[in-house]
C-alpha cells in the first residue's frame, strides 16, 4: 500500500501561518492543497499545549494529563508534546498539522520525536509548517513555501532544496566602539569551582567547574532540565543559589557584598522574551540608545554622541533608513538584530544570549548568527550563546556541555 502524502511547508517570518492553519482546520479550500478540503485535521503546536494548560489551570479540566497526577505546566517541553501527540492520535484525524514541532526541544528529544513522526507519516497525512529547513521530515513528498498568504508549490523536491538552502551572511563595516568603555581589570570574568545546586531535594548541578575569560566565545549546550538556566541566573544575580558557592564574578566572590546592580551593569543579556516588554512607540534610534541606560524605552533626552552611536549601529544593521520607525512595526528578524545592538551598545564585558534564534526563519537566523560572529571577532566582550539548536554558521571557540546524571548534571568542555 502506497504511503499517504506528507506536505512540507517552509514558513518565513512574514508568513500568515495562523490563517493557513485555520483554513485547513475549517476544511476550507486552500489553493495547491485542495485534496485536504474535506478531510478532518488536528493541530500539533505550542499554542495548543498552552490552550490545554490554560484549561487545566483555570478550570481544573485535565485533558492531556488525565491519566497522570502531574500537571501539564510542570512537564518538560518534550513531555508536553508527547502528551499532546498521543491525545491527537486517539482522535484518529485524517491529517495532523505540525507547527514547528521541534522548537524548544533538546537534540535527543528532537531525534525521538522525528522518528515517531516519520512512523506516523507511513499511515497518516502530515502537514508540516516549519521555519527551518533542517526540521523538514525525510518522509516529505510535496514541498511548498508560504509567502504572506501565498502558498507556492515546488515542482520537485530538488527545486525546493536548491531554492531554500540557507545562505551565509556577512556584515560590512565594523562594530561601533563604546562611548565609555567599561573597565574590568580581571582576565577571568566568571569562575565556578565545584558548584553543586539542588531544588527541592533534587540535585541539578554536580561539581561544576567552568571559567569564562575576557574575549572568549562560548556555546552552552545541554538537554532540557540540565541546569543551563540555573547557571545563567547565578551569573546574572537573579538566583540566590549562587550564595554559599565557590562562584566568582568579575573578581568578587558571590556573597561577599557585591552589588547586583553593578553586576548587571557589566553584563549584556538577551533572550527573545525581553522583546515582548517593548510594546510602546519606541523608535529604532531610541531602542539602541536605551541600552546605554538599561531602561525599557528612553526617558531622557539623548545626547548628540548617543544619537551618533545609534546611527552607526543601525547603519551596520542596514536599518539606518528606519531610525525613526517604530520598533513594534519591524519584522521578527529585524527586532532581534536591534535588540542585539541594544545589548551590545555598551560593549559589556560579558554578553549572554539565551536561545536568541528561537522562532526565527533560516534567513533571519543566519543574519543574527553573522552579527554574533562579528561581535566575537571585533570586540573584547566574552560571549555565552545558549541554544538547543546547532546553528551551522555559528563559530564558537569553545563549547561547554551539561550532561545529565542521576546525581546532577556534569560539566564537560567539548571541541567545536
General description of the model:
Pfam families: ABC_tran. GO terms for molecular function: ATP binding; ATP hydrolysis activity. It comes from Flagellimonas zhangzhouensis. It is a single chain. The chain is an alpha/beta fold and 416 residues long. The protein has two domains: 6-164, P-loop containing nucleotide triphosphate hydrolases (Rossmann fold, 3-Layer(aba) Sandwich); 214-241 and 258-414, Rossmann fold (3-Layer(aba) Sandwich). It is built from twelve helices and 16 strands. The strands form three sheets. The chain has a six-stranded mixed sheet, with helices on both faces. It has a six-stranded mixed sheet with strand order 12-13-14-9-15-16, with helices on both faces. Strands 8-7-10-11 form a four-stranded antiparallel sheet, with no helix packed on it. Strand 3, helix 4 and strand 4 (125-130) form a beta-alpha-beta unit. Helix 9 (284-293) crosses helix 10 (304-316) and helix 11 packs parallel to helix 12. The longest helix is centred in the last third of the chain and has 17 residues, at 362-378. It is globular.
